[in-house]
Specification:
- The chain is α/β, with parallel strands linked by helices.
- The protein has two domains: 131 residues, Alpha-Beta Complex (Aspartate Aminotransferase, domain 1); 234 residues, Type I PLP-dependent aspartate aminotransferase-like (Major domain) (Aspartate Aminotransferase, domain 2).
- Helix content is 44%, strand content 17%.
- The protein has a seven-stranded mixed β-sheet with strand order 3-9-8-7-6-4-5, sandwiched between helices. Strands 10-11-14-13 form a four-stranded antiparallel β-sheet.
- Helix 2 runs antiparallel to helix 12 and helix 13 runs parallel beside helix 15.
Length: 396
């Protein structure tokens, strides 16, 4: 390869370093849990999306082992060739039933990742005659899906339903999609979904909801933001992930059966991708047993207690605790270099909390992204609060 090409890349990487924007991989040497071994160092982790602490649950581990014994370790092909196993079918039936109080005539479709599920939704429902209205702070998968959709994309400001109402009223597109996260992954706040759904019903638009950070956590039975806000409509297209609160892996889309059938026919990320291992789908069944049972309810109650304790104890002077009622509790710092210094200092003191910088968040809003899990206890939380308050003073 040309040395000029390599030199160009090296300079661009150096530019990232100069802006405190370079990302680095760390190697976890133990299972996902609050207390981990990372690059040979013991750490107290506040960075995973394992909100209910199910990633190492023995019942789910046993179910994954059982699934491998029943179905093997690979699916062999895409769902529409021969990769759609009984395990996938059973999981999809259960997920549809789980969300049926909120999605009329529900059917579900499983995917290997939430990123792929979002690309599938927007590529299937997009087109040159479609107007797509995208929330300003949507996840990268929704942004990339909008780019691939071939639709006329308009972006509305974060949570600004008044602006969205104006855009919808002015649109003459044959079909319309409003696309939003439910829980915003870098801020932790909720989208105004009741108002968004009302607008969609008024303007005959689909409402695409990415509930990656709500499924399993929100709602009395863990059915996510739809249960939490008591939303129900045939115009909902709901995406939930199975590798966060569910503790396993993969994702799914739930919608009216006709909408899901359209995805089977037209969603390229579904049609042309090898199906995920059926053992994963088998293990998720055990996760759902926990989520909708007493143990899941108890874990959600404990998580809510941690969130309340954080909000009570985490008092800051210069840095800012952002308004969030969810397990995502960012600490806004602002400057990229200061955020990196804080994350590095935390790491040296035995805490794993990532610094989030542009382009993941807007310029000038670099932050520490603290995520809480039901696997944490109050002592874990107290240690984090103490070290953050100490660091804020040191970095003044």
């Amino acid at each position: 390869m040309s040395s000029k090409l390599i030199a160009d890349l090296e300079q661009r990487i150096a530019d990232l370093d100069a802006q405190s924007l370079r990302r680095r991989l760390r190697v976890a040497e133990s299972p996902c849990a609050p207390h981990m071994q990372v690059d040979g160092k013991p750490l107290l982790a506040f960075c995973s999306n394992d909100y209910l602490g199910l990633a190492t649950h023995p019942r789910i581990v046993s179910a994954l082992q059982e699934g491998a014994a029943l179905y093997g370790v690979g699916s062999g092909a895409s769902h529409l060739i021969n990769g759609h196993s009984r395990a996938h079918a059973l999981l999809e039936e259960r997920l549809a039933a789980f969300l049926s109080p909120y999605v009329p005539q529900a059917r579900a479709l499983t995917f290997s990742t939430g990123y792929m599920a979002n690309l599938a939704i927007l590529s299937a429902f997009g087109g040159s005659d479609v107007a797509l209205f995208s929330e300003e702070l949507n996840h990268a998968s929704l942004i990339d899906g909008a780019r691939l959709s071939r639709a006329q994309v308009q972006i509305y400001a974060h949570g600004d339903t008044a602006q969205l109402a104006v855009l919808l009223a002015a649109s003459t597109a044959a079909r319309k999609l409003v696309v939003t996260d439910s829980v915003f992954s870098m801020d932790g706040d909720l989208a105004p979904l009741k108002d968004l759904l009302a607008l969609c019903e008024q303007h005959d638009a689909w409402l695409v909801v990415d509930d990656a950070h709500g499924f399993g956590v929100l709602g009395e039975h863990g059915r996510g933001v739809l249960e939490h806000l008591d939303l129900c409509s045939p115009q909902l297209i709901y995406m939930g992930t199975l590798g966060k609160a569910a503790g396993v892996g993969g994702a799914f889309v739930a919608a009216h059966a006709t909408a899901i059938e359209w995805m089977v026919q037209r969603a390229r990320p579904y049609i042309y991708t090898t199906a995920s291992p059926p053992a994963i789908a088998h293990a998720v069944q055990a996760s759902l047993d926990i989520i909708e049972g007493r143990e899941g309810a108890a874990r959600r109650v404990h998580l809510c207690g941690l969130i309340a304790a954080w909000q009570d104890k985490m008092q800051l002077q210069r840095w800012q605790r952002m308004a969030s009622q969810t397990a995502i509790q960012p600490v806004l710092i602002g400057d990229n270099a200061e955020a990196m210094r804080a994350a590095t200092a935390l790491y040296k003191r035995g805490f794993w909390v990532p610094a989030i910088r542009p382009p993941t968040v807007p310029a000038g809003t670099a932050r520490l992204r603290v995520t809480l899990s039901a696997a944490h206890d109050m002592a874990d939380l107290g240690q984090l609060v103490a070290v953050l308050q100490q660091l804020e003073g040191e970095h003044a």
